[in-house]
Specification:
By secondary structure, this protein is α+β, with helices and mostly antiparallel strands. The chain is built from five helices and four strands. Helix 1 crosses helix 5.
Length: 119
């Protein structure tokens, strides 16, 4: 199990606390320092069953600078979104937990973190 976190994020700290309380075996990836490649983002999206715009933090300054709100949300634009996430990792929703069964969850709630633990 791996968890992508920003240590300054309260949701990330909460997820880590819950994983620790449950005695989970996991690896922490500080994704702002160890930035995921476009290919890693594609893999996580597949595991999540989501599209890149589903995990994009659209209120971030970089999102506003890029005018993401006006970008098409379709298959033809998918790579453009993934490239933006790889180039601006602050745009990636957090925390993302990759579960042992090959799936992943966005662990913003205790329920989502418990879901990842049960897989």
């Amino acid at each position: 199990m791996e968890i992508w976190i920003n240590p300054a994020c309260s949701k990330c700290r909460s997820a880590i606390s819950l994983l620790d309380a449950e005695g989970a075996d996991y690896t922490v990836r500080r994704y702002l320092e160890d930035v995921p490649s476009a290919e890693e983002i594609r893999e996580v999206l597949t595991r999540l069953g989501l599209e890149p715009w589903d995990i994009t933090r659209t209120q971030e300054a970089a999102a506003k600078e890029l005018d993401l709100k006006d970008w098409p949300r379709d298959e033809a634009s998918r790579d453009r979104w993934i490239t933006a996430l790889a180039e601006h990792p602050k745009l990636i929703q957090r925390p993302i937990i990759t579960a042992d069964d090959g799936t992943a969850v966005v662990g913003r709630t205790d329920e989502a973190v418990r879901d990842a633990l049960s897989r």
